[in-house]
């Protein structure tokens, strides 16, 4: 199964963004009539068929909608301080996404060595991990939060 991500998918016909279209048509060499799956990141999985195989604007027809695809019976939120080595935090984001974490709260602690947090890069890593692990739920990435604020705040769910 090949999984694509588009939070704005609206059946019955949908046009993928340019980046996803290029990946679908040029990289994977899928053509008209091929089947692919699109997740909206909120738990719905769409089985689609390609009706227009333009690498800039691939149009698909939604054949089946599967709500709550592989929904977990729980929602986990993990609060973690980004490590000095950015690669380790990125690895954590990948693995957390793969096991089904609902939300990640990056923490700023008293002894944090990393005060700059690249949210856009982290979002891309989460999206890639979601697609690779065939998840229909995309974890919520909260902004960098001071430790005290995170501990005193009411629990924030994964969606």
UniProtKB/TrEMBL annotation:
Residues 73-151 form the Ribosomal RNA small subunit methyltransferase E methyltransferase domain. GO terms for cellular component: cytoplasm. It is found in: Cytoplasm. The keyword Methyltransferase applies. SUPFAM superfamilies: alpha/beta knot, PUA domain-like. It holds the Pfam family PUA_4. One of its GO terms (biological process) is rRNA base methylation. PANTHER family: 16S RRNA (URACIL(1498)-N(3))-METHYLTRANSFERASE (PTHR30027:SF3), RIBOSOMAL RNA SMALL SUBUNIT METHYLTRANSFERASE E (PTHR30027). Belongs to the RNA methyltransferase RsmE family. This is 16S rRNA (uracil(1498)-N(3))-methyltransferase. It comes from human gut metagenome.
